[in-house]
Amino acid sequence: MDAHEWKDLIQKATTGNVPAEEQLFTALYRPVWRYLMRRTADVNLANDLTQDVLLKWHQALGRIEFHDSPLPYVFTTARNALIDHRRKKKTISLESLDVDMPDPQNEQVRAADKETRAEIEQVLLRLHPLEQLIIELYVYESHSAKEIAHILKKSEASVRQIKHRALEKIRNLINPQ
After folding, report:
1. Which residue, 96, 116, 112, 133, is CA-closest to 174?
2. What is the pTM for the complete model shown?
3. Percent of the chain beyond pLDDT 70?
4. In angstroms, rounded to a whole number, what is the distance separating the alpha carbons of residues 24 and 54?
């Protein structure tokens, strides 16, 4: 969705246009849920947090002026909701990643899958949270550096630099020399 479409839908939603609100929620739900699901590895928790995030966004709809896209606000709210949840629980887990794995046919394949996921999880946990977020948006959500920069309110050059450094860290952690 381009900036003009976001603005138009937000304008309609603030005036009480229910179909526009539904279209906005539909456009925002999946990326937020996927982000939270990867971070929590718990479907119920991801659903609850996504609902909280979208409720906060809906409440802010009349108060905050979104210049083009609500994604920066929504992803920041999702990250903050996750941080708040972890503070309350005092546990941090990144159990499951949205990684394409082969269909397990036997115990050996399942064990290898678990081992691979555990290795990926450990590597990602060693990255700075901003690096983790950029890698997730780039790899799992297929956002460009320009889109990530917009979401995070950073320059495109900064996002590219952070992404490059994060990928280099991942390479070094996977294949230490």
Report:
1. 116
2. 0.58
3. 85
4. 10
